[in-house]
Amino acid sequence: MADVHDVRRLALGLDGVEEIDSDGFDFRVDGRGFVWSYPDRSGGRRVLRTDVAVLFVGDEAERQALLLGEPDLFFSTPSYDGAPLVMLRLEKVDVARLTELVTDAWLMRRER
Question: Quick one: average pLDDT of 5-21?
């Protein structure tokens, strides 16, 4: 099981990463976000959830592969339709897999 501390440690261990001041977490490379706290608006107002990470995944094909292949880990909402992003339930992922996901998101954002 991973948590916000693992996300922060992993993200800050990558080259060129800056953390944006936030009530949750928000990490960017070259000015582009690659992992941040999920801004949940389901209750009518915006609440940053640190138990869910939004990850940049590059494209719609990768997004769909993650959502369909591992629905216990990944989900989305209508407001994210068409965006190359998925939400990750941190309590369902181990640190090794989180490392892979955060590193991949960082690499994709550096390459664009």
Answer: 97
